[in-house]
Amino acid sequence: MTENASRPRCVRRGAAALAAGTVLLGSLAACDADSVSPPATASSTAPSTTGSPAAAPDPTLRTVSNNGHKLAFHLTPGHLPAIVLDAGGGLDSSYWRDIAPKLAHDTGAEIITYDRAGSGASDEVSGPWKAQDAVSDLEAGLTQLGATHDVILVSHSLAGEIATCFVNKNPHWVTGAVLVDASLPDLYTDAEVARIEAANQEQVDELKKQPSTKQTRQLLAVASDYGDVHRAYHQLSWPTSIPATVIVSAKTPFDTPDDAQLWRDAQAHFAAAAPNRNLVVAQNSSHDIPVDRPDVVITAAEDMAKKLT
User: Fold this and answer.
1) What does the record list as coiled-coil region(s) (predicted)?
2) CA 230 from chain center: how many Å?
3) Worst-scoring range by mean pLDDT, 6-15, 163-172, 176-185, 263-272?
4) Where are the extended beta strands (E) located within the chain?
5) Considering only CA atoms, which of 195, 197, 186, 129 is closest in space to residue 162?
């Protein structure tokens, strides 16, 4: 493994003080699909529907403004469906540095990666991290890039919550998804939320004692109101019209066997809930499937793109 490839794992380990990563994985405010405004009209820069995977161009940086802050999006032009890669909590667009070029080369599709608010080259936003805000940021970026239809979401870990909220608001933007060991609503029963809250509190208190950095501030923001937002998130469901491939890691994010099994059960239950979903186990992988088994993610994304073209 190269030095660059190992960097995301180091970032996650630095944040893993939060109770086996459970806050990092799922502390995004649950969204109310009826409380947010309709999507903006697509711009005139919509990607071409033709293209060749023979020579994928280098990505270009596009700075997007939304609600007073700036976000860094990286665009590799190509044909539809566009593939949007969204990393887990505490990570940024560099997490996909090995996967994005491969997908662009193999599929010829438009590839989009981005830094969420508070990560990478994007501005920080003060206050608790709300799902409505994260969805709004992604909408703004995709709108300004002209990618408001025929989108495939590839969402890792916490980004599964963004994806779930996003498709509830914008079902006609998304034609498919690959959910990579994603935080899914099925996990967050009252009992599991209460257990996670109790397990997290000591780690959150410890994090507050550490020097204030961009990363610690962001982790504390996503940890805010964990119980309430996840009980609300548990009520959301994935639209049955949007196909999804669910990739679950062999190890899961949890160290305890009971919690690991609950994670596997939630992934399997989600995958079994509609005929256009399937479950893939990434053997020999930790929660960092894109690092440990990039081939599994690439194959799932490419298979989804083939089905939709």
Assistant:
1) none
2) 16
3) 6-15
4) 60-66, 69-76, 79-86, 109-114, 151-156, 174-180, 244-249, 277-282
5) 129
What's the pLDDT band for 55 if we cut at 50, 70, 90?
A: low
Residue with tokens 């697509």: 42
Taking the C-alpha atoms of residue 129 and residue 117, their distance in angstroms, rounded to an integer, is 9
**Residue that is written with structure tokens 């976000």 in the block:** 71
List the structure tokens of 301.
């994304």
- Work out the number of other CB atoms within 10 angstroms of the CB of residue 65: 12
In whole angstroms, give the CA distance from residue 118 to residue 125.
6
Q: Is 86 helix (H, G, I), strand (E, B) or coil?
A: strand
User: Residues 6 or more apart from 266 whose CB is under 8 A from it?
Assistant: 184, 186, 187
Q: Which residues of 94-123 are buried (b: 16+ CB within 10 A; e: fewer)?
A: bbbbbbbebbbeebbbbbbbbbbbbbbbbe
Mean pLDDT of 255-270: 94
Global confidence as pTM: 0.84
What domains does the chain contain, in order, with CATH numbers? 3-32+49-307 (3.40.50.1820)
* Alpha-carbon gap, residue 179 to 298, rounded angstroms: 12
Q: Beta strand 109-114 with 69-76: parallel, antiparallel or unpaired?
A: antiparallel
Spatial separation of the C-alpha atoms in residues 247 and 279, rounded to whole Å: 6
Distance CA 269, CA 264 (A): 9
